[in-house]
Amino acid sequence: MSPPESSATSQTVQVRHAPGKGRALTTTTTLRPGTTILATTTPLLLLPSVANLSSICTHCLRSGSSPPRACTRCHSAYYCGPTCQRAHWRAVHSVECKPLSRLRAAGRGPLPTLVRLLVQALLKESIAQELADLEGNVEAIRSEAGGTRWADIEVMALGACACAGVGTGEEQVRRACELMCKIQTNAFNWSEDNPDQTAVFVEPTLAMINHSCVPSAEVQVAGRNIVLRASMAIQAGEEIEITYIDYTLPRPKRNEALAPYNFQCQCPRCRGNLNIYQASALYPHLDLNCFSLAPEVSQVHQHPAVVDTQKAAAANTQAGKVLADIESSATPDTESSQHASLCHRYQRCKNFAESDFWAMAPLPHLVADASSYYAAEENWSFALTTACLMATACDSYRYPPPFHSVRVQDLFRIAKLLSNTAADTSSLSQPPSSVVSKSDLNTRVQDTLKDIDQVSLCQMLLMMALRLIPEEFVKEWDLAVDAQDMLKDIGQLPGRDKALTLINAWATNPEADQSRKFFQYAVVDPVHTLASLGKEALEHEFRGA
Ligand SMILES: [Zn+2]
Ligand SMILES: [Zn+2]
Ligand SMILES: [Zn+2]
Known about the structure:
The chain is mainly α. It has helices spanning 82-105, 113-123, 125-132, 138-142, 148-164, 170-186, 204-207, 251-258, 268-272, 276-280, 304-307, 309-328, 335-354, 363-376, 380-398, 405-427, 439-451, 454-468, 478-491, 497-508, 513-542, and strands at 13-18, 22-27, 36-40, 45-48, 69-70, 78-79, 199-202, 210-211, 217-222, 225-230, 241-242. It has three domains: 1-42 and 207-247, Beta-clip-like, CATH 2.170.270.10; 44-202, no CATH class; 277-542, no CATH class.
C-alpha cells in the first residue's frame, strides 16, 4: 500500500497565473464530462461541524449503526472504532487533545469548527505552512468598512491562541488572524447559515480553483472521499472552475454570497445577467444525458426562458424581488403554519409556475419544501409527484450534468418514495384522510401509480444512481449503501422474471435502440407523468382560498 498523500495531486492539473484572478487551476489534458480530475481522502484539514460532532465519527465521518464513542480525555472527538481513533490521533488529535481537555475541565462547550481548525493549525506547524501559501484576502478584510468581519476574526483568533496555549500577544494574535482568514476563504462546505453541513474541510489544491456561476467542475464529497469531477468537457490548458456558492440564485443573491471572497464575478452568466435556463444552455450536450430522467434537457435552447429574452429578463428581475420578500417572512415551525407559508410562497411564485419557469428561484425551493411537507404527512404519493417535478423540471436545468450530486440525490429520493408508494399500492390501502378532499386528483395519482411498474422503476433509478456516482463513493456514501440494500431486497421479490430480463438487457447495453426505448417507457415517461401531476398537486394544495 502506498503512503497516504498529504494533499490531492494529479498529473492532469497545474497551478498557473490567470490574468486578473491570481492563481488558477488548469488541466493539462482534455477532460470528458464526468471524469474524476482529482481524488483524495486526506485533506489538509477536516472536521465535522459542531452540530454533527457527537453523531458521526470524527475521522471517517460515518454515522454507523451505533453512536460513535468519545475520546475519554477531551470528549471533543468521537470514533466508530480504534482504527479511526488511532488514525485521527496520528493525523492531528495528538496535538489538540490536551488543550481541548483543558477547555472541557473549565466547563466550556465545544469550539466552533473554524476555531478548532485554527487551533490545529497553530499547534501543528506543517498545517500552518501549507495554509500560508493560500489566498486569505487578509488586507481586504482588515481594511473593510465597518470592520465587523475583522473584529469577528480577531475574537476567533484570540480564542484559538488562548486554547492552543501559544500566547495572546500582538504577534501571536496577528498570525492567528491571518491563518483564520485563509481557513475561512478556502474552507469547503462552510456556511454560516447552514448548521446542517456535515463537515468542513480545507484542501490546498482544490483551494486554487476559482469560482464561476457556470462551473466546469464540481467537488463531490462522501465521508472522507473528496472528488473533483468535470461537469463539462474541458480542453487541455483551460482553467477548471467550480462554484463557491449556490449558483442557481439570481445575480443580486449571488453577489451577496460572493461578497466574503472579495472579487467581482466575471463569468459569462454574471456578465450577461443570464437566467438559470440561459446558463443551462451554456452547457453543451453532455455525455450520459441519455442516461438521465431528462434526456431532452439538451433542448433547453428552445425553452421560453431562453427564446423569449424579454420575458426571461423580466422574470430574472422578479425572481430577486420574490426571493427577498419570501426570505423576510418568518420561518414556520408548526405543520399548519408550514402549510400557510407554502400557500403564501406559491401565490408569490404563481406566474413563474404558469410560465413553466420551474427552475427559476425561488420556485425550486418551494417544490422541495412541498415534497418534504407531503413526506412528513406520510402522503407518499404526493411527495413522489413533487419529487419527480423537482428532478425533471427544476434540477435538470439547474444542474445540467446528470451525474451532479444533486441530480443523483433526486434519483435516490424518488426511489425511496417509490418503495413507500409501491407498498401502499400493493396493499390497496386507503389514501391518508388529508387528501380525500382532493379526491379527483388523488384518484388520478393512484390510478397512474397502479399503471406503473413501481418496483422496476425504483430498481432502475437505483441502478442509474449507483452508476453515476464516483467509484469511491459506492461503499462510502450513506445513500449509496442504502441503495445497495434496497436493490438486494428488490432482487428477492418473486415473479419478476420478465421485467428482470428487460432490465438486465438495458443495464448491459443502455445505448442500444431497444434499451433506449425500454428506458423511455419504463423510466422517463412515468416520471414525467408523475411530475405533471406534481404541478397539479401544488396548484391544488397551495393556491389558497
Ligand atoms: Zn470512523
Ligand atoms: Zn481527545
Ligand atoms: Zn458569475
